[in-house]
Amino acid sequence: MRLAARYVVFAVASTVVNFAVQETVVQTAPTEPLALSILAGTVAGFAVKYVLDKKWIFFDDYTSHESEIRKIALYGMFSVLTTAVFWCFEVAFWSLWRTEFAKYFGGALGLAIGYISKYALDRRFVFRSERT
């Protein structure tokens, strides 16, 4: 259970970093900060979550540049895939019931499915450790 709690805390931490970086960019960018803020926040949140998951969820050691690049690419691909699951659930629930409650319920369900799937994919394909 402690592993699951850490995983949730790290997801929240990476989200906070993402939003903080976005807000910093919005406050400091001279013009049209939206796209830049989303990109910067996403990169920062991704980096934080990757490092925390690598070290404290999967207890993965560094082996080589090539191996690390492969892990980062797979981790990123699975992040995009599971984010799409979240968005699809949120949009589908909104489209079906047209209420804020339905939208957020769908989003929460999509996030839960996405994070559970992401953990399984990362464990199986990204961080193949005997210790997880």
What is the helix tally?
A: 4
Q: What is the general shape?
A: globular
Q: Roughly how much helix do the residues carry, as a percent range? A: over 70%
Low-confidence stretches: none
Structural class: mainly alpha
Mean pLDDT across the residues is 92
**N- to C-terminal distance:** 13 Å
Proportion in β-strands: under 5%
What order do the SSEs take from the amino end to the carboxyl end, as H and E? Answer: HHHH
Describe the main β-sheet briefly: none
Q: Can you count the beta strands?
A: 0
Radius of gyration: 16 Å
How is this structure best described in words?
It is a single chain. The relative contact order is 0.11. By secondary structure, the chain is mainly α. The two termini are 13 Å apart. Helix 1 runs antiparallel to helix 2 and helix 3 packs antiparallel against helix 4. The chain is globular and about 45 Å long. The mean pLDDT is 92. It contains four helices and no strands.
How do the helices and strands line up, and which of them pair or pack?
Layout: H1 2-28, H2 33-57, H3 65-97, H4 100-126
Helix pairs in contact: 1-2, 3-4
Notable traits:
4 helices, mainly alpha, 132 residues
Structure, briefly:
This protein has 132 residues and is mainly alpha-helical.
